[in-house]
Design goal:
Helix content is about 35%, strand content about 30%. By secondary structure, the chain is an alpha+beta fold. Strands 1-2-3-4-5-6-8-7 form an 8-stranded mixed sheet, sandwiched between helices. About 30% of the residues are buried.
């Protein structure tokens, strides 16, 4: 197994694979209402079988090179390997076109620690620098101000609003399209001295 450190606080980014379904379900149970305000994972992962199926769908995407999912674990307490508190993903990846759609989620206990921004930077750097992708999109409900703030911190540009384009829990929501292009990512890294 691999883990990528997200900083001095002991947080790590790790693959979120089907064998972690029980842990994923417990995490969803802790954050079901909060996470479910804007994204559907809590509606997909309601028991062990559906949690495993959700993670298996991303394992299948990884095998086909059309998506990836990673969990964020906070520092281990008592040698338990840490606690799953959120994650980042590529909901879609198109290697031929060099485009991907990134996303995220976080349970309430982990909010305000910069975990999503740090984890998303790792993913964007990987897909742009190692994989050679040109464009990464971030689609977000207009009401999800925390996720919009992450897009801004990542240096993304708001391209527009898809009005009432997303039917979620019986209500239509506006979706904002944010993106960053490979040259913009590299310029931002260079300007911050992290190149």
């Amino acid at each position: 197994m691999f883990a990528i450190s997200l900083g001095d606080d002991g947080a790590e980014l790790r693959p979120l694979e089907p064998w972690r379904a029980e842990e994923f379900l417990a995490h969803m149970d802790r954050g079901r209402e909060f996470v479910g305000q804007h994204i559907g994972f809590p509606d997909l992962a309601t028991d062990l079988e559906s949690s495993r199926a959700c993670l298996q769908s991303y394992a299948d995407k990884a095998a086909a090179d059309t998506g990836r999912i990673y969990g964020i674990w906070t520092e281990a307490t008592g040698g338990s390997g840490g606690r799953l508190v959120g994650g980042v993903l590529f909901r879609t990846m198109d290697a031929v076109q060099g485009t991907a759609e990134a996303g995220c989620w976080l349970e309430p206990s982990a909010v305000g620690k910069g975990l999503i921004t740090r984890a998303a930077r790792v993913l964007l750097d990987w897909v742009i620098e190692e994989r050679g992708f040109h464009r990464v999109e971030w689609l977000v409900s207009s009401g999800n101000t925390a996720s919009i703030a992450v897009a801004r911190r990542l240096g993304m540009t708001r391209e527009g609003v898809l009005r009432e384009s997303y039917l979620y829990r019986g209500k239509r929501a506006d979706m904002e399209v944010w993106s960053i292009l490979a040259p913009e990512w590299r310029a931002a890294k260079s300007a911050s001295g992290s190149a």
